[in-house]
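Exercise 3.2. Students should predict the tertiary structure of the chain below and write it as structure tokens, then compare their answer with the key that follows.

Predict this chain's 3D structure.
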Amino acid sequence: MTRPASLRRRAAAEALGTALLAAVIIGSGIQADRLSPDIGVKLLANVLASVTALGLLIALLAPVSGAHLNPFITLAAWWSGELRPRHVAAYLAAQFTGALAGAVLAHAMYGQPLLAPAGSVRWGPGVWLAEAVATAGLLLVAFGLTRSGRAPLVPLAVSAWIAAAIWFTPSNSFANPALTVARSLSDTFAGIAPSSAALYLAAQLVGAVAGLAAVVVLFGRASPRRPSRVVTRSPAPPAPAPPSASPADGPGPPAARPAT
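Answer key:
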């Protein structure tokens, strides 16, 4: 049985994974913006690169940290009793730090300012509702599959949901506070104005609560893990000596050797 990774390794996996995801989302948006004037082609290129990277990173990092790459996934895991509070703090710090580092990396590769407030305004009640729906669906897919014993499907299913939500919602399905903050500092195709980002974060929170509620209704709450107990055992009594063999029985068993 493989031992769980240390908290340091888990945090490193979360930081690296979120950084790479942010770099792919922002970098592919810059590339698409340079290659085509057609907004539909730009969005398609951005979506394909982003969800492909997301699925690969989840599959790669899940054995190390669970591949949350999203503060709401981490908080939901804590609420479900799957993560300790000190692990939550480390995960969240790693995710936000990683997302900002990924934004800096993408900008550096394309010669952009390393961090600059975005100018893309994404506003309106329908947009906020859409962001809540996208976030709720993400948590329902991720935790619903896990609760129903189909965790191996999570990388593909989560990527598929995000791809669908980007296309069917006017918010373009950010559904991730760490990436939303990073994208608010990216004045590129994938960016979002800081004023818009604040309400996206609020909508994501509402969606996360709704998504968890749906998981509980459909699959029930996760069974809380019982704390491990240390059991003190008294020394085992010495084993009785084997009965002596009679000549008729043949030679008896060899004498036991003391443990060295």
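Discussion points: Residues 61 and 231 are 34 Å apart (CA to CA). Residues 226-236, 243-260 have pLDDT under 50 and may be disordered.
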